[in-house]
Specification:
The protein is of the alpha/beta class and 361 residues long. The protein has 14 helices and eight strands. Helix 12 links the parallel strand 6 and strand 7.
Length: 361
């Protein structure tokens, strides 16, 4: 029995640290994904692939007992997706359109995170991995997470008609340690051709750390209805109403945020008079001053807006965000403007903690 336990421990030690390091390396690429940099980024992180592949083989070579089959399956699945991401990044760097290939490659990162997340309930290092990096040594937070009964209804990750092939549904996260407290709500909108089930992972670590409820809707059509916003606006309002009917939400801290097309739709849905959102945080969004012509002065005056844009954005030049800032301030909004020097057209997960500070301030 002791030998068996040692073998299981050794196998876990061979895989899990290598897997967590590999996932951090892939996230590093995602944060710095700028087309001219893709070949160098792909080459830089390839050194983490081989330890992961070796760890996965060592892990699979062990006979896992029935009680640990689920744990083993999640670890193997997550490692497999991470390896696919490394391989796809290498191919993307050699392709005529490296940006498109790199974005697709990193879709494997979100699949790896989804596969690994249930292990937070089984292994403390994995639970720490799914908290904000600055809070991983917070013993009180770790104890609260460890004591939570994640088997309860209405906590953890839930999906409502939001399989990858479905449109118009949403994914939801409620902290496992939720115990009836009133919480902020973050509604995070994916980019063009994206999906709420995958965009959930852009925010989950911070929502889990800071105790926020997180909803990641999927657009009704292929992307958000920029020319016909009504169906998506109605769907977002219905999602917020449903969440409020099931969990205590602070009406004064309901954030709508989004990336790219999701950022643009944050303006369209969030500037309406009938919106349920108290705060807006568009990221890497398009903007035209005509957007404000239909916005009432009452809605815009004093509206908290956290505006994020990258100086390296190749899809929507940073001048678009600068014009948005000037127009919104002139209209009376309270704008927190973040122009990030090393950010391209990708989502800056490292900005989430600051956004939550601003939301809760």
């Amino acid at each position: 029995m002791s030998n068996d336990t040692d073998a299981l421990t050794d196998a876990t030690t061979a895989l899990v640290p290598a897997l967590l390091t590999a996932l951090d390396a892939l996230a590093y690429v995602g944060r710095r994904l700028h087309p001219p940099n893709i070949p160098d980024l792909a080459a830089e992180v390839q050194r983490w692939r081989e330890p992961l592949a070796e760890g996965r083989e060592a892990f699979k070579a062990v006979q896992w007992p029935d009680r640990l089959e689920r744990f083993a399956a999640h670890c193997v699945d997550a490692a497999g997706h991470a390896l696919l991401a490394f391989d796809a990044l290498k191919l993307a760097a050699q392709s005529p359109q490296p940006a498109l290939g790199a974005y697709r490659a990193l879709g494997n990162l979100t699949r790896a995170l989804e596969a690994l997340y249930p292990v937070t309930l089984m292994l403390p290092p994995v639970s720490r991995f799914f908290t904000h990096a600055d809070r991983r040594d917070d013993e009180a937070l770790a104890a609260k997470m460890a004591a939570a009964d994640a088997s309860r209804d209405k906590v953890g990750i839930m999906h409502a008609s939001n399989q990858i092939a479905e449109r118009g549904g949403f994914s939801l996260y409620v902290p496992e340690y939720h115990d009836g407290e009133t919480r902020p709500l973050i509604v995070a909108l994916h980019g063009g051709s994206g999906h709420g089930r995958t965009f959930l992972w852009s925010w989950l670590r911070d929502a889990r750390t800071r105790g926020a409820v997180l909803a990641a809707p999927t657009s009704v059509d292929r992307t958000w209805g920029l020319m016909n916003p009504e169906p998506d606006c109605e769907n977002l309002a219905a999602i917020v109403a449903h969440v409020k009917s099931q969990w205590p939400i602070d009406d004064g801290r309901v954030l709508l945020t989004g990336m790219s097309d999701g950022g643009t739709f944050t303006y369209l849905a969030g500037l309406r008079d009938d919106t349920p959102f108290s705060h807006l945080a568009p990221c890497s969004a398009s903007f035209h001053p005509l957007l404000l012509e239909a916005v009432s002065g009452e809605r815009l005056k004093g509206l908290p807006i956290y505006l994020i844009h990258g100086a390296l954005d190749w899809m929507f030049p940073v001048e678009v965000a600068q014009a948005a800032h000037d127009a919104l301030v002139a209209g009376g909004a309270q704008v927190e403007y973040r122009e990030i020097a090393d950010l391209s057209h990708t989502y800056p997960n490292d900005e989430n903690d600051r956004i939550i500070d601003w939301l809760m301030g």
